[in-house]
Specification:
Distance between the termini: 40 Å
Largest sheet: 2 strands, antiparallel
Structural class: alpha+beta
Helix content: 10-25%
Number of strands: 6
Shape: elongated
Order of helices and strands: HHEEEEEE
Number of helices: 2
Strand order of the largest sheet: 1-2
Length: 105
């Protein structure tokens, strides 16, 4: 795809010409040369980067000695750290349905 840049003045010109409100997510769509824009939603997409990745191969305890070893791959049986899970445990001490995020161990 070609790369295009624009100034703040051009972004404001495009926004006022298209009668769009001043919001960050609509300003990002008005950068550069914009002939027409069809906005299909009235709200932004709610996503966030969580930063679950790490280059450390282990964790240290408070004295500086290795406490845990981390594997090289971020996925395990198709799951990775930060995924939302529902665990259904039929019996035992922790029986029931549990919903939450997967953490690394």
């Amino acid at each position: 795809m070609p790369i295009e840049t624009g100034t703040g003045g051009r972004t404001k010109h495009n926004r006022t010409r298209l009668n769009l409100p001043k919001t960050h997510w609509l300003d990002a769509a008005c950068v550069g040369i914009v002939e027409g824009l069809q906005v299909l939603t009235s709200q932004r997409l709610l996503i966030a980067a969580k930063g679950w990745g790490s280059r450390q191969m282990g964790t240290l305890n408070k004295y500086g000695f290795p406490a845990k070893h981390k594997t090289r791959c971020k996925t395990f049986f198709g799951f990775q750290t930060g995924d939302m899970l529902r665990a259904i445990l039929p019996s035992g001490k922790l029986a029931g349905t549990h919903i939450g995020k997967l953490t690394d161990a």
